[in-house]
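Lay summary. Proteins are chains of building blocks that fold into shapes, and those shapes determine what they do. In this project we predict the shape from the chain. Here is one chain we studied, written as its sequence of building blocks.
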Amino acid sequence: MNRSKAVLWDMDGTLVDSEELHWIAWRDTMANEGIVITREQFLATFGQRNDSIIPSWRGSAPSSERIERIGQAKEELYRELVQRVGIAPEPGVAAWLDRLHKDGWQQAVASAAPRTNIDAVLALRVSRVFQGIVSAEDVKRGKPDLPPRTIHSDSAGDRKHPVPIGQDAPQLDRPEDPYRCDLSLCSASRHDAPLRSLLLRPPRQCTCR
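And here is the predicted shape, written in a compact code that computers can read:
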């Protein structure tokens, strides 16, 4: 596949504005475990895998079984919130998805989220435009390690070449990364003004390279 015809999208904070629902789910789940977390603690780990997040909040090393139980409880609550409250795409995302789809670009979701979360979100929105999905179950390590990005590229059908990656984790944008793309086309980070301004720009004003 031509290297210029595939785009990889991160999920949380890039495709959809899921921060508040994740915060509520983590806050309430950890409260049930007798642990109070702050919004700042949550934001510091937002986008990471559960097996990295939970030990950092407990102050001790929980068993793998307990990590799994807590993680499942949190994700079930998150999906309940998605169904009950709904979830919105980040500003500008819908226009870019539609434009890229019409222009023949292949698009894939590459996220550290569980597959059930991704499916729940895409079922409410635009699953028709995606040709591939990589989730937490497909990788052993999360951000900012390189192996997930290698898998992401393979998922989009282009293992040998980098492709545009939409993501909201600055630590992933490493010049030495052989899978680094020329343009983080779809980044929607609230904290990255230059890249966010690109996403908010109408697609007709941008050239997809």
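What the prediction tells us: Residues 146-165, 168-195, 203-209 have pLDDT under 50 and may be disordered.
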